[in-house]
Amino acid sequence: MLDIQRQADDRRLDIDQVGVSDLRYPITVWDKTHGRQETIASLTMSVCLPRHFKGTHMSRFIEALNAHRGEITMRTLPAMLHDLKARLEAKTTRVEARFPYFIERAAPISGAKALMDYDCAFIAESRAEGDAFTLSVRVPVTSLCPCSKAISDYGAHNQRGHVTLDVRPVEGEGGPALIWIEELIEIAEASASAPVYALLKRPDERHVTMQAYDNPAFVEDMVREAAARLKVDPRVAGFRVHVVNHESIHNHGAFAQISGGVTTL
Amino acid sequence: MLDIQRQADDRRLDIDQVGVSDLRYPITVWDKTHGRQETIASLTMSVCLPRHFKGTHMSRFIEALNAHRGEITMRTLPAMLHDLKARLEAKTTRVEARFPYFIERAAPISGAKALMDYDCAFIAESRAEGDAFTLSVRVPVTSLCPCSKAISDYGAHNQRGHVTLDVRPVEGEGGPALIWIEELIEIAEASASAPVYALLKRPDERHVTMQAYDNPAFVEDMVREAAARLKVDPRVAGFRVHVVNHESIHNHGAFAQISGGVTTL
Amino acid sequence: MLDIQRQADDRRLDIDQVGVSDLRYPITVWDKTHGRQETIASLTMSVCLPRHFKGTHMSRFIEALNAHRGEITMRTLPAMLHDLKARLEAKTTRVEARFPYFIERAAPISGAKALMDYDCAFIAESRAEGDAFTLSVRVPVTSLCPCSKAISDYGAHNQRGHVTLDVRPVEGEGGPALIWIEELIEIAEASASAPVYALLKRPDERHVTMQAYDNPAFVEDMVREAAARLKVDPRVAGFRVHVVNHESIHNHGAFAQISGGVTTL
Amino acid sequence: MLDIQRQADDRRLDIDQVGVSDLRYPITVWDKTHGRQETIASLTMSVCLPRHFKGTHMSRFIEALNAHRGEITMRTLPAMLHDLKARLEAKTTRVEARFPYFIERAAPISGAKALMDYDCAFIAESRAEGDAFTLSVRVPVTSLCPCSKAISDYGAHNQRGHVTLDVRPVEGEGGPALIWIEELIEIAEASASAPVYALLKRPDERHVTMQAYDNPAFVEDMVREAAARLKVDPRVAGFRVHVVNHESIHNHGAFAQISGGVTTL
Q1: Contact D155 C196 (CB under 8 A)
Q2: Residue ranges of chain B with pLDDT lower than 50?
Q3: Cβ distance of A252 and D22 shorter than 8 Å
């Protein structure tokens, strides 16, 4: 059967990335408490394609994913990248996996437990210059406006916000430095007015209401707080912090962003 | 050229709706202040198909829309429905147009003006039993939790919420009774703790912060307030009120819904 | 601590549904091959609220979900509905769970295996009139246009389509009749030009290309084929079939819909 | 009234971007045929914030947008950027406007006319190093798989794809070089198997079916064709081409991407 993809191409143009996108697949990630967590990812997987080849073989991405049983962790991703390069005869490769991650959280007063969901991502690249890895965590939080509190006789507008931390660990001999999703969630929550929970009883609601009022934070404060913590962490080679507040007094968002260190390969 | 669509079908099954969906097209709607407003709709247009026909002619929906210059109003929709039935030789037809609608709003203290956006929809159906028309408006608002206010020493969690009103006007000789988008926005805002604006200066922010604190409302209160107003309006044959608060202390929503009167044809 | 929710309300309006929405939570569903499958749901859970109560207790929905360990199956949902009514002192309750479901599929010629994802939902309601249960499955398929094939000298436009089957099983003594997600996927695929796979090698690609060309189907044919099969299934009390083709020659969709039997409580 | 935002901040961290996001607003863009086109944008507007200031004044973004009457064109954006820097006392600013753009297209044989929609964006930045401007156009097209055509006895799978061109014009004395949305649409369509239309009669459908079959193109071919054209255009300082095919035989996409020239400031 004809292998059209292997035919020559005369347009003399390398392709930076070619592969599959929006592939939904079950994966396994590491869980600080339970060792492993089964979840469901939306995957983008690609390789570069040199100018002399017409096409790549898309089915091999799925075969590689199956061969590694969908295990997407900081320690196993280097092997999957290496395998993808071999299967697809490519010099560079990139895997992006976006997935929800669940952690059991206890309510602050009652101790009532329930699972909170966080949108996370692993982005792993392998090129001639080396491998690079990014861990991304998007954390829902409460933010309470300092201006609204200061200028009003009572009350203060507050809202759900999202703190997104994209972190590139330093690369060591054994691969990227280990940073847990749980640690990034702590940093994000510490930068906000209060954490967000799946289950709160009334004494808990009272607690987080006053906690938020006691800790007003602009989107500018939140992005700086989180950036300041990442900046001094010796495991962090580069980072980007993005915070958005879904303003309760507007129909649009207020956002801020700080990048630091090495953010591209 | 063969007309496959006109061929016979022997499965003896009428089709309730067949047509085009997710069609993005510029339309004109009525504007209480300026007469007309140009906007952009996502359209679904369909007809029924009797059992003896194999297919419908999809291109005629676009032709009908062009013929009516995309004018989607309570007064012009009956003619478009009639035209669709004629062009597609159908006994029933349905047009759904979802679009953003803009209104200039003045901030409560400074009077600073800016445009607020509201998601609206017209749903029009024509059947043997008669025509039916639904106007839908989704209004962003601020809601402040009465429980949080009552049990806390200070502060109260509040958040952006959305009040969606689906209203079926009574049918008269000249078509459906006239109800303005602007009137439904007023009902939605009156049911909430405070309205939402695109532009607020600091004196305005102080005002809406205290307005929300002075008017706490559960999602249950909001849905009842709006339903109570629609229930007594003689122009309203049927309605559905749906309210959701994007809780600032949770990563999920709190919602409530009340239907009343005639909601189906 | 004050229980604001239990206070009286004097607006004399029952609330049809009040509860939580957009709650993301891990759940367990039945799997025809492996017994059970872990997945992640987006949940909406609600109860009715009589006119004399001001509010409901939202945290109890999460507690009920935890108590049942997120097990959402045709056999366990009746118990969860009963529990929700008891915990929330309500006469009616409704649970909607939307989740991806994975099945290992073998490619038609090579036999290469990979997981395919399907968007599914369970919707369960309990009212005075009885319980009702709906299973929904959204199946991606290939559709090839019969008109394009008939009028062209060669080729035929084809595209990804989605067949959505909402099925209400008949209620028996032991609960709703058992209908597997896998059975509904078979019905949807049999109504289309060809199935869709996650992994196809070249001999498989050749096979499905010709399979689709040999089985052209309008959106009207697909909706009728699926409806005809559901109509004669003695386990099916009511159904709705919705098919949409994401037309490869347009930037909009072509859709059709047929309902049959009992579709509301 | 206290101006909290102007207070000092001692964390010694500059903020790269702070501003408003997801702001929906009517805007005016240039139209090659009609001079101007009214459309609706989703806007993100931001400035940098030096380390010694606590916060920015979010309301001024809306005021600046109003002052320029929402005119977002290659010729007027430099003035809006300058104004934003003045109003917000900032050294850098960034405006991103995403909007649908409509063009009347005639069907290839019948000449039947209808409006096609394209997702476009303007991204404008002003920094110490100078101004930079990016025009982005996302064009829906038909792609037909060369492998499927070559290995099958008849037929070939085809599907809707999206070609996204992000183009940075060279900066001249009068601002960025003028490149029309219409020109980028032509480049995108020329790289695909066939264009996509809103309205096709049967002779048109026959034409585009055979046109696609006569012009098979992998996602790799499409990305190279478009990149080759942008590479030799003297008005283009930098570009990124991204193509995705929504595969009709899979439930995931196939994509490719090529960048060239100057893509960052």
Answers
A1: no
A2: none
A3: yes
Enumerate helices (H) and strands (E) in chain B, giving the number of each.
6, 11
Sign (positive or negative) of CA dihedral D125, D126, D127, D131: positive
Inter-chain touch B117–D24, beta carbons under 8 Å: yes
SS3 of residue A241 by DSSP: strand
d(CA C96, CA C93): 10
Q: pLDDT for D85-100, tens place per residue?
A: 999 999 999 999 999 9
Residues 6+ apart with CB under 8 A from D252: A20, A21, A22, A23, A24, C198
| Residue from the list D15, D147, D257 with its beta carbon closest to the beta carbon of A224 | D15
Contact B198 A248 (CB under 8 A): no
A228 touches chain C (CB under 8 A): no
Which chains have 3 or more CB–CB distances shorter than 8 Å to chain A?
A: B, C, D
Single out the residue of B187, B241, B188 nearest to residue C17, CA to CA: B241
C202 touches chain B (CB under 8 A): no
Instruction: Give me the total of CB pairs closer than 8 Å, taking one residue from chain A and one from chain D.
Output: 143
Please give the pLDDT value at position B9. Answer: 83
Cα–Cα nearest to A25, from C103, C70, C122: C103
| Interchain proximity A147–D4, CB inside 8 Å | yes
Q: Tokens 């309008």 appear where?
A: C218
| Residue D19 forms contact with A (CB below 8 Å) | yes
Which residue in D14, D20, D255 is closest to A254 by CB distance?
D20
Q: Return the pLDDT at B265.
A: 52
Q: What are phi and psi of C47, to 5 degrees?
A: -135, 165
Q: For residues C151 and C147, give the distance between their C-alpha atoms in angstroms, rounded to a whole number.
A: 6
Q: How far apart are CA D176 and CA D122, in angstroms?
A: 12
Do the chains contact at B257 and C224, CB–CB below 8 Å?
Answer: no
Does any domain span residue C107? yes
Domain containing A239 equals 15-261
The answer as to whether D255 is a domain residue is yes
Name the residue facing C155 among D116, D212, D252 (closest C-beta): D212
> What single-letter DSSP state applies at residue C8?
B
Q: Which two tokens stand for residue B7?
A: 């061929």
Any idea what the CATH number is for the domain that residue B75 is in?
3.10.270.10
pLDDT tens-place values along chain A, 265 residues long: 778 888 888 888 999 999 999 999 999 999 999 999 999 999 999 999 999 889 999 999 999 999 998 899 878 888 999 999 999 999 999 999 999 999 999 999 999 999 999 999 999 999 988 899 999 999 999 999 999 999 999 999 999 999 999 999 998 887 899 999 999 999 999 999 999 999 999 999 999 999 999 999 999 999 999 999 999 999 999 999 999 999 999 999 999 999 999 766 5
Q: How far apart are CA C49 and CA C26, in angstroms?
A: 27
Q: How far is CA C221 from CA C190, D55, D167, D189, in A?
A: 11, 60, 43, 31
CA of A133 vs chain B CAs: smallest distance (Å): 28
**Does the CB of D63 have a partner CB in chain B at under 8 Å?**
yes
Reported ipTM exceeds the 0.85 cut: yes
Q: Residues of B with CB below 8 A from A160's CB?
A: 159, 246-248, 251
Of C116, C151, C197, the CB nearest to D206: C151
The token duo for D100 is 């649908």
Q: Does A59 touch chain C (CB under 8 A)?
A: yes
Name the strand (E) or helix (H) holding A105: strand A93-106
Q: Assess if residue A162 is contained within a domain.
A: yes
How many domains, in total, are found in chain A? 1
- In this complex, the residue of B220, B253, B259 whose CB is nearest that of residue C56 is B220
Cα D241 from Cα D166, distance rounded (Å): 6
Contact with chain D for residue A63, Cβ under 8 A: no
How far apart CA B261 and CA C78 sit, in angstroms, is 30
Tell me whether residue A249 is in a domain: yes
β partners of residue A28:
A38, A71
Query: With an 8 Å Cβ cutoff, are B157 and A246 in contact?
Result: no
